[in-house]
Structures are given as structure tokens and as C-alpha cells.
């Protein structure tokens, strides 16, 4: 975030000035969102790639044997089958992204952690403010867990359920 916000902005401004253009200022929030978006996008791409590779090759071969065109094969076979593999990883990335928003404070964005620190410092009620912030993060995590659990159950509909226990 700091590299994009300071170094890339400085390099872009030097190039713009050398060509006779005005300087630009990248917003700290925009830089933070761009960096978090690229990082989370890279991780999400890997999750989706792994989920696609987890689709049994026999299902794809059977669809091709029936003469299914590639777009229909992707829509009817690959995407529904990979969804159940991708949801847990994507849910994990969502929770990581919610926690990574605290990194936006380094460029001056007033997100929850920074505002909590400022309010606690002004009132000296550190415990109260940090417990409230922790409760908000916990609430977001719990609600997200419920939502992704529901989505995962929906994605796994029709699949056999594996239960633990004896042999």
C-alpha cells in the first residue's frame, strides 16, 4: 500500500511533469483498495484454479463424449461441480480481507481499528472501545460464517454426506 501510495505516485508525477502535464494525487483509500484487490484477486484466482482442477475428469470426459459444446460444459458441469470446492477458500479470503482493511490506516483511512484507537486515546476508555471494535469484528465474522455456510450447503446439494464414526 505504501509503495503504491508514495513511490508509484512520485514516479508517475515525475513522468507527468517531464511531459508537461500536471501532478496527480492518488487517494490513500484508492491505493489501499487497489492493493488489497490485487492481492485478494491473486489468492481468489488460485482458489478457483484449484477448485476447477478438483472437478473429476470423468465428468468432463462424459460431457464431451455426449457432444456438449465447451461453453455449455463449463456452465452445466464444471462451474456447479467446482463451486462446492471453491466456497470454503473464498469464505476464508473474505474473512482475511475484512481483517486486512486495518492496513488502510497506514494511508490515513479512518477504518474501524484507527477510529477505535483515536476514540480510546481521547476518552482513555481503551477497554470499552477495543471491546466494541472486537465485538464488531466478531459479529462480521459470525454473520459471514453463517452466510458462507448456507452458500456451501446450497452448493453441495445433491452430493452424498460423509459422516464420521465407525467402520
Which characteristics define this entry?
167 residues; mainly alpha; 75% helix
Describe the structure.
It is a single chain. The chain is flat, with a radius of gyration of 23 Å. The protein is mainly α. Helix content is 75%, strand content 0%. Helix 2 (28-53) packs across helix 4 (70-100) and helix 5 (112-123) packs antiparallel against helix 6 (126-155). It is built from 6 helices and no strands.
Termini gap: 52 Å
Give start-end ranges of low-pLDDT stretches.
Answer: none
**Percentage of β-strand residues:** under 5%
**Total number of helical segments?**
6
Quick overview of this protein structure:
The chain has six helices and no strands.
Write the layout of secondary structure elements.
Layout: H1 2-18, H2 28-53, H3 57-65, H4 70-100, H5 112-123, H6 126-155
Amino acid at each position: 500500500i505504501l509503495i503504491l501510495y508514495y513511490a508509484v505516485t512520485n514516479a508517475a508525477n515525475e513522468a507527468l511533469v517531464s511531459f508537461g502535464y500536471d501532478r496527480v494525487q492518488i487517494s490513500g483509500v484508492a491505493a489501499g483498495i487497489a492493493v488489497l484487490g490485487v492481492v485478494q484477486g491473486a489468492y481468489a484466482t488460485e482458489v478457483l484454479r484449484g477448485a476447477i482442477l478438483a472437478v473429476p475428469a470423468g465428468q468432463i470426459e462424459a460431457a464431451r463424449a455426449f457432444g456438449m459444446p465447451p461453453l455449455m460444459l463449463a456452465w452445466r458441469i464444471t462451474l456447479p461441480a467446482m463451486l462446492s470446492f471453491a466456497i470454503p477458500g473464498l469464505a476464508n479470503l473474505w474473512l482475511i480481507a475484512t481483517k486486512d482493511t486495518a492496513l488502510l490506516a497506514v494511508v490515513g483511512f479512518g477504518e474501524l481499528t484507527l477510529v477505535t484507537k483515536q476514540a480510546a486515546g481521547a476518552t482513555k476508555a481503551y477497554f470499552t472501545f477495543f471491546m466494541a471494535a472486537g465485538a464488531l469484528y466478531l459479529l462480521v465474522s459470525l454473520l459471514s460464517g453463517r452466510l458462507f455456510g448456507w452458500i456451501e450447503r446450497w452448493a453441495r446439494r445433491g452430493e452424498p454426506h460423509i459422516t464420521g464414526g465407525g467402520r
